[in-house]
Design goal:
Helices cover 33% and strands 16% of the residues. The longest helix is centred in the last third of the chain and has 26 residues. It binds flavin-adenine dinucleotide.
Length: 699
């Protein structure tokens, strides 16, 4: 039986209109800095970013009486509003009758190592609340007739913890959270790009005092760059991931994140070596992940060379048609590349094969109107001749139709509808795709309340480096919701989220404006476009799924040279409106150096292949095999067990990037809360780990 879903329902889940933002209230206050006259906005807390994580923090803080403003480069930009996949996933605890519990979920979340154990538990135990409150705000998660949430299995998930509203889960999350923020009267300042974090005090007493931002609408003769000052005692960085770091990327355009911004403010970053890569359509067209039912429908995958000839290249890797088709199917729930899955003819051999086709200058396509062609000399494709996991799944789903497009339409008509919205009809024509960068697992180092190393500065969502080496599919969205809530609880407990009464921002503002002026130099030979091309090419060529020690070391030298040049020569924006982009590209070049510095050190410590990448090494003990024989150039080092227990911390001090190793924070699984013993800590606010003078009761 084919699922027959009325078009209106498909439309509502794929074409999600966002709420209208209320008019922004102008500020009457200005400050003179270096001959400029800048508007000053005051708030108890500035939240940078209006993705699902930032909006969650805003809503929760406002509900607790905090004075908050959200500033955003693009209110409905970023990954939450603009990214997705076949069934974009939210990962939350399943119920005990389905074999789940929070300790098991926490173990699964941190299974790949390099993750704080307490953070994993926080995410697990907070997930039910995150999901229920999203449902309360109107998120249409699917239910069975008795109210149970419909779930499925995804990457690194043994208990079926995934659920989804369809391709647009995170956009729907942004929608319901934004509606709630607007209802609560949270101001959202759109087209406002934060360029510098302002601080006050020295050494251990150094803390946030606000931010300097670009706001096109504040541009005037007295303020030609449109700079604006936000004074606030508390800052939440929710600026998402560094999507612009790689050329081959499935992030939407214009995702810069806040790694460079944080480095410049002396904030600790962590786990920058860890990212996620996988198959999807690139951002040059319509960036979208090809996970789940797209590959579980088992389309024919082929490449086309410069002469227009088709190549059935996967047949060079897998030994039988059954092995080829079953591994393609597995990309559905083993979506991210993982070096060890290249071994034993596993599913990441698909990523390697596609990556190599791209290197050879061939374009790769998925054809939903053809079943996979047979491996030469073997039997033709047959749905009854698949490995047990694939056969059982497709059988239970009733996806036994003759063609991939029919199976896809049966399992998930939204997956087809979604591409149609962007003028790509996968029912009619093959879909071009590649292996792309998709997620930054590392980021700003935070504790269990989302506090960064800079006092009064918090980080949530993809900006925070809370994920270890692997993360279950959907864990990113869950982490943003759980930590968005916790950050708000913590800020509310400090009682600090009130607009500051200080006269101005002190010397920090003067220095920040001076730094912007020092960077933007009309006479510089460096242009935004050139920096972008250089950084992205270097990262994709040397820091993607396949890398080697020499390549990484060379890339680091080049990245340092680029940053030295930026420091001495600045960047020439093509026009005033490109000034914010110039700052973001300067910060992205810095972030790229930070990633390469950490990766180079990791490799130097004997670090091997794990989540993001294979570290190729002729002396390595992992050797992927293909049908034609060993793939010697891709022999790789395996991961060392001891590296799972630690994380690389990256910070910038006196203009230099410094590294430090630290062990994962532990979590005692045997410790049990006890109501009467632990209640006072909640009642008095001691759970928030605040200095005695500021500790407030949470209720
Ligand atoms: C194709 C794709 C599919 C994915 N699928 C899944 C999935 O199924 N499940 C899952 O859990 N995760 C998934 N992810 C990851 C997940 O979508 C992101 O990690 C998550 O949405 C990040 O949310 P966020 O709120 O932290 O950041 P974003 O949603 O990216 O929001 C960042 C915000 O910050 C603003 N901003 C950035 N820089 C500045 C600045 N300097 N000043 C002011 N504002 C700024 C942006 O305008 C934006 O509003 C996917 C990612 C991609 C790319």
């Amino acid at each position: 039986m084919t699922i027959d879903v009325p078009q209106a329902i498909l439309d509502a889940l794929t074409d999600v209109p966002m709420p209208r933002l209320p008019a922004e209230r102008p500020t009457p206050e200005t400050v003179g800095v270096r001959g400029l006259n800048l508007p000053v906005y005051r708030a108890g807390c500035v939240i940078v970013g209006s993705g699902a994580a930032g909006l969650r923090a805003a809503v929760e803080l406002r509900r607790r009486g905090g004075d908050v403003v959200v500033v955003s480069q693009s209110a409905w930009g970023g990954t939450s509003a603009c990214s997705g996949s076949d069934k974009q996933t939210l990962h939350t605890a399943n119920t005990a009758d389905r074999g789940d519990n929070c300790l098991a979920m926490a173990r699964a979340i941190r299974a790949g190592g390099a993750m704080d154990e307490d953070t994993a538990y926080v995410e697990a135990v907070g997930s039910s609340r995150a999901m229920a409150s999203l449902q309360f705000m109107g998120l249409p998660l699917p239910q069975d007739p008795l109210g149970g949430t419909l779930r499925y299995q995804t990457d690194h998930d043994e208990a079926g913890r995934a659920t989804s509203c369809g391709p647009r889960t995170s956009r729907l999350m942004v929608k319901v959270l934004a509606e709630e923020a607007i209802r609560l009267g949270v101001p959202i300042h759109n087209h406002t790009t934060v360029a510098r974090i302002l601080t006050e005090g020295d050494a251990a007493g150094r803390r946030v005092s606000g931010v300097l931002a670009f706001r096109g609408k504040d541009r005037s003769d007295a303020n030609p760059l449109g700079l604006a000052v936000y004074l606030a005692p508390v800052l939440v960085l929710a600026a998402g991931g560094p999507g612009e770091l790689y050329r081959d990327s499935v992030y939407p355009n214009g995702c810069f994140g806040s790694l460079g911004l944080a480095l410049e403010a002396g904030i600790d970053l962590v786990n920058l070596t860890e990212s996620q890569f996988g198959i999807g359509t690139r951002r040059e067209g319509f960036p979208w992940n090809l996970s789940g039912s797209y590959v579980q429908a088992i389309p024919h995958v082929y490449s086309v060379d410069g002469q227009g000839r088709e190549h059935h290249f996967l047949a060079d890797y897998y030994r039988t048609t059954r092995e080829l088709a079953s591994n393609l199917f597995r990309k559905g729930y083993q979506w991210p590349f993982h070096a060890t899955r290249m071994l034993d003819f596993g599913s990441s051999l698909v990523d390697l094969a596609i990556w190599r086709e791209g290197r050879a200058g061939r374009r790769v396509f998925m054809d939903f109107n053809r079943n996979p062609l047979p491996v030469p000399g073997d039997r033709p494709f047959d749905l009854r001749q698949l490995d047990e996991d694939a056969r059982a799944y497709l059988g239970t789903a009733g996806a036994i139709q003759g063609l991939p497009i029919e199976r896809l339409r049966h399992m998930n008509p939204l997956a087809i509808e979604l591409y149609r919205r962007y003028k790509v009809d996968i029912a009619a024509e093959p879909l071009e795709f590649a292996v792309n960068n998709q997620h930054m697992n590392g980021g700003i180092a935070v504790d269990v309340w989302g506090r960064s190393s800079l006092a009064r500065c918090y980080a949530v969502g993809e900006a925070a480096g809370t994920h270890g080496v692997t993360r279950p599919g959907g864990a990113a969205l869950n982490a943003g919701q759980v930590f968005g809530t916790r950050v708000a609880e913590h800020i509310a407990a400090t009682g600090l989220a009130r607009p500051p009464e200080v006269a101005a921002a002190g010397p920090a503002l003067d220095q920040a404006v001076a730094a912007v002026h020092a960077l933007l130099r009309p006479e510089s030979p460096l242009r935004v476009r050139a920096i972008r091309a250089e950084v992205q090419a270097r990262m994709s060529e040397h820091c993607g799924i396949i890398c080697d020690p020499e390549g990484v070391a060379r890339a680091l030298v080049e990245a340092r040279a680029l940053n030295a040049q930026v420091r001495t020569q600045g960047i020439a924006p093509d026009r005033a409106s490109e000034a914010a982009r110039a700052v973001q590209w300067q910060q992205m070049a810095l972030a790229s150096e930070a990633v390469l510095t950490a990766l180079n050190r990791f490799i130097g410590l004997g670090g091997g292949s794990r989540g993001a990448r294979a570290i190729c090494d002729p002396a390595g003990d992992g050797l992927p095999m293909a049908r034609s024989g060993p793939l010697e150039p891709y022999r790789f080092r395996k991961e060392r067990a001891e590296h799972r227990g630690e994380q690389i911390v990256v910070r910038m001090a006196q203009g230099r990037i410094e590294l430090e190793l630290r062990p994962n924070r532990a979590f005692d699984e045997t410790a049990r809360p006890f109501f009467e013993r632990d209640w006072p800590a909640w009642l008095t606010g001691a759970i928030f780990d605040l200095p005695a003078a500021t500790g407030r009761a949470p209720c």
